[in-house]
Structure formats: C-alpha cells, structure tokens
Amino acid sequence: RGDSRAADRTVDSVCPYCGVGCQLTYHIKDEKILFVEGRDGPSNQGRLCVKGRFGFDYPYHPARLSRPLIRRPGVPKGLDPDFDPRHPLTHFREASWDEALDLAADGLKAIKSAQGPDGLAGFGSAKCSNEEAWLFQKLVRTSFGSNHVDHCTRLCHASSVAALMECIGSGAVTASFMQALQADVVILTGCNPAINHPVAATYFKQAARNGTKLIILDPRGQALDAYAHRSVRFTPGGDVSLYNAMLNVIVSEGLFDQAYIDAHTEGFEALKSHVRELTPEAMSPACGVAPEQIRELARLYASADKAMIFWGMGISQHVHGTDNARCLISLALACGHTGRPGTGLHPLRGQNNVQGASDAGMIPMVLPDYQPVTDAQVRAAFEELWNTPLDATPGLTVVEIMDAIAAGTIKGMYILGENPAMSDPDLDHARAALASLEHLVVQDLFVTETAQFADVILPASAWPEKDGSVTNTNRQVQLGRAAVPLPGEAKPDWWIIQQIATRLGLDWGYTHPREVFAEMKQVMASLDHITWERLERESSVTYPCPAEDAPGADVVFSDTFPTSSGRATFTPTRPLPPDEPVDGDFPTVLITGRQLEHWHTGSMTRRSRVLDDLEPEPVASLAPAELVRLRLTPGEPITITTRRGDITLKARVDPLMAEGMVFVPFCYVEAAANLLTNPALDPDGKIPEFKYAACRLQRAASA
Ligand code: SF4
C-alpha cells in the first residue's frame, strides 16, 4: 500500500486480470499510477489479490510500444532468440499511423480479393472491453465477410458454455459466487480458486467458516483443502466416471427432487435408465475414488437444502469437457439445486472479460447474445442494424483456424490482444502456421511472441488508459475508466479497429465507447436497463436487470429456463478415456495452467516488477516422491517430453501433487508448456485437452 497523501488524484476502475472483476482505485501522481487500492465492489468488497494490488506497472515497462511498427524487409517471421522486445528496431521499423494502417488494411484487402472471405480470420481477446469485442467481431463479419472470429474463451470454458447452452439455454452462471455464503454445501471441482480466482476464494473460505460444507473434487490438492469438509482426489480424466457414479447413487437411493424435475426439466427418465449401470463399483476403477466415498459425496450434495457447484478448467479443458459440464448440470437439476438463493451452477470464468467478450459475439457460431448465425431471423436483425448481408455459415474456432492456416486456406489474420504463439496447444504447429501467413496484423501493448510473426504491429491501449465496460464471472457489467494518458503515439483500441474498418470500406463514425455500448443495446437483450450513464453512476450492474431503477438478478431461472420449452434438459454422458492415455513410453500426466502471480501468457504480469520478482522463472511442480524417484533435489532441472516436444525447467516440490502427474504453468516463453500439449479437441466445445497429455520425466542432462 502506498501513501495516499502523495497522490494527485484517484480514478475508480476494475482490475484488468481475472474474471472475479474486483473494483479498484488507481492512485495517480504526475499522470502515473502510484499504487492501487481495492474498493467496495459487489464481487470484492475492498479485497484484492496480489495481481490486482501489484500488477499495475506493466504499462510503464521499457518494452511498451508507443509507435506503429512494420517488419523490415528480409527479416524472417518467428521467434528469434536474439530478439529483444525492448529494442524492436532490429527487426521492425517505426512507421506513421497512416502508413501502418494503410499497409495493414491493404494486406487484408488483397487477400480477400484473391481468396474470398474464407482467406481471412480474426482473433480477439477476453482482455478486450465489451465495446472493443463488439467492434472487432463486427469488423470481421461485415468486412472480412465470414464468421471466422474467435478468442481465448475457446481455450478455457467453450465446453462449459456448449453444455450450459444445450441443457439450460444460457451460457452464463446461474448464481454469483457470493451465493456460496448462503449455501449448505458447495462443490468446487476442477478449479483452484486460491490461485486462479483468489478473491472468490475468500468468499469460499468465509462460507466454510460460517458452516457451509465445502467439497473439493480434483486430481490435485489445493490451499482450500484446509477449509474443506471433504477433499477428494480423483484420477486425471476420471471425472465423467465420478459424476455418473454420483448420479447413479442419487437415482438408486431416490435422492432426487421429483417435484423440481417435474416442474422444470425434461429427459430425467432417460438419464435414470442411462446411469443405472454406472454404479460406484463400476466407476471406481476409472475415477480412483472408493465406492463408499462416492456414495457419501452424492448424499451430501443431494440431501443439502441449498447447494452450489463451481468448476474451472480442470473440467472444461478435456476432450470430454462438454460431457463433464453436462454431468454437473444433471447433478444440479436432479437435486433441484438451481433457481434459489444459495443454489446454482457457476463455471468460474478466467479472464476479466471472457463473459462479456463472448456475450458481445466474438465467437464464430453465434452473433451477440449467443444468437445463432444460422438463424435467418437473427441475421436479419443484425443485417438491418449493420446494413450489410451476413454469412450464414458458422466460422472456424481457434485451433481450427490454425489448422486452416497450416492447410493454406486462411492466409491473413488480424489479432487483437491475443497471443496464440504462447496459448495454443502444440505450439510448434501453431507457430509454423503463424509464420506461413501472407499477412498478419497484431494490435497489442508489446511485441509479444505472436507479434514477432507480424507484418504490422499497432500500439494499443492498456486497461488503465481507456474507458470501457467488462462483464465478470457473476454477470456484473462494470465500468473501467481511463486513469492515465497513453504513451507516445499509442491509441485506444476502439479507435484502431475503426481506422482499419474505414480503410476496408466501412463507415462507422464512433467517437467514444459509450456510442458502441448504445449500439450493442439495440440487439442485446442481456443489456436491457443497463445504460452507460447508469454504469457511470453505479459502476456495476448485474444482468439480467428488470428495470433501470432495480438491481440485476444475482440468481436466475427460478421459474423457467430460456429454452424453447422453458425447461432444462438432462443430457446423459458416457465415460471416455483421455485422447492420449499414459502408457509405458509416456507414463506421467502433464497438467498445464496458471500461477497466482502470472496471468495467462504473461504478456502483462511478466512485465510487472513485483509479480515477476515473485515468480521469475518456469518451474515444474511434482510430488515429493516423484523427485525422489528421479533422484532430483528441488531447483534442479528436469526435462519433460511428450509426443510433440520437450522442455527443460526447474523442478519444484509440491506436496499437493500426486505421484504420476506434473504441473507446468504456460506463461513462460523460456520453457513454453504448450510446446507439449495435445491439440485434440472436445467435439462440442472445440476446446483442447490442456489438462491431460501423456509425458515422460527425466533428469535433465545438466542436472
Ligand atoms: Fe484482480 Fe482477480 Fe485478483 Fe480480483 S481476484 S484482484 S479481479 S486478479
């Protein structure tokens, strides 16, 4: 905490990192952020984690871009170990905005005229504000002429959204995480909130202290185990087996809520007969949980008056991620645990605006508010609004776009704030695809790993430098306010997108994000009764919201679900093995994810002094027994090999890990975890299996 007397002024805003959406205040001196304090937002009540509190100085990093860059002739595209992002003029030259924008747009135009709309694609980012996400998908749809627009939600909760849309007709949470304070039982599964949603974790701790029974189901241990009524570790990839066995117990012991099922659901009889054979005894070998323990878990959840399920990417990032989420939804529906305070389904969303960027339509199969591109009536409404015919074919998803580039179909891309050269699975493949693009435009704060493949780099705005709304995991739409000036010639992202749009023949004319928000409201019912002025006044409004002078709904679907029948659906699932089970050659499970101090590919947090000082280098976390087996002491280098490549990094002992698995964060370019990951996709959510790859561990040659 800094000295508030030293600040010239303060500006209220929102944390730019995770989906919790903590509200904060920037304390500013001489037009620079001095320090940050939490303020009394609905999802944080003054609390901040280490990222929100200390990760504010990345905009001032020496590598920050302040002028447009154009690749120098003859410099090959790709990651050059000698390239220093603080001195990019070895590989790029500075350009005026007009020259850079003309070059960016001309390259896109040339590919469209040679290849047609399918020759181009766009990746946005869940770091974009709602307004930026809206403009970006509008640009791709109305100018590129296709639906090839996606972003990192594909890599985090696409399977959760697919299951939620299918079963309950809405991809957002049914209740905020604050509702955990009112629940009797809370299941946390496939998530590690103390690391990934730290302020949400404080509510779970508070609930447990007040008597809520916390049940943690995960292959790994975690800090919240200390607060848990039960913490059960299951075999990686055994989740569908575990949940089906719990459903079997609920059905066979008659623990379901027949009145709720009759009033609100369909398909329960099919689910009942489907799970009849999936007994705890039958499922126990696959999930590694004893039958009696499975029975106890099912009874605890089903017999609670109010219970909630929270899940994270341990659920979604599997080839059976959608099935995992379907199971959790079935558990809630069977027990009547939705639609009341203290009940609900809550996929903990990862990035600060992954909910809002998806709501705003930055996904390839739906227009804003999840309205299918295949629906002629939906398209007609957007065609009228945008005065342009729209493509009726769903576009390609993140990994599919990389495959299409590799196949030579897609030849040009516009990437806004996304870093696929670090975040995509099987990075050698993804990086080779990026290098093969005829034309790549990257808009970002730094010469990221992805920008090192770009023809043109457009210097963008950091979160404290711009106005915009974001929507957190609780469906709370919140306002971020420009607090400090942009450096050099860097520009607001909405301005840059509009400049590209103008050069591609579109006539937009926005002068401020509030005008974009007003346009969104014309076709996004989710924003009804939420106005920019109201956000300026209240800072946060939850959707759906019944009136301009009423609060939004913290808990939804009390009476009906937004499906054609008004009912939710049970979707039975069959346990499936991981795409790449462990075997004699690759006997260990590789799990990738985030660290507390670093966020996603690290482009911001690794340029934040305190955060990078806390976790400055890549580490592989292993159970103590694994280090003994490998004859390693903590800190010695270990090589991890999968069928796609190998990396060497320091071994860290972690008593929360089980034998037979290793955890590696994916934010370090020095030992990029995604060089190892499996690009196999969930068939419904098209999400890669980041949470399971078969690998081999060895002492590194230098150990
Ligand atoms: Fe920011 Fe998330 Fe930490 Fe809150 S919990 S301060 S939103 S990173």
From TrEMBL:
Assigned EC number: 1.2.1.2
Every 4Fe-4S Mo/W bis-MGD-type domain range: 8-63
Listed GO MF terms: 4 iron, 4 sulfur cluster binding; formate dehydrogenase (NAD+) activity; metal ion binding; molybdopterin cofactor binding; NADH dehydrogenase activity
Keyword set, alphabetical order: 4Fe-4S, Iron, Iron-sulfur, Metal-binding, Oxidoreductase, Repeat
Keyword Cell wall biogenesis/degradation listed: no
Superkingdom of source: Bacteria
Keyword Iron tagged: yes
GO biological process: formate metabolic process; respiratory electron transport chain
A Gene Ontology cellular-component term: membrane
Family, similarity comment: In the C-terminal section; belongs to the prokaryotic molybdopterin-containing oxidoreductase family.
Protein name per the record: Formate dehydrogenase
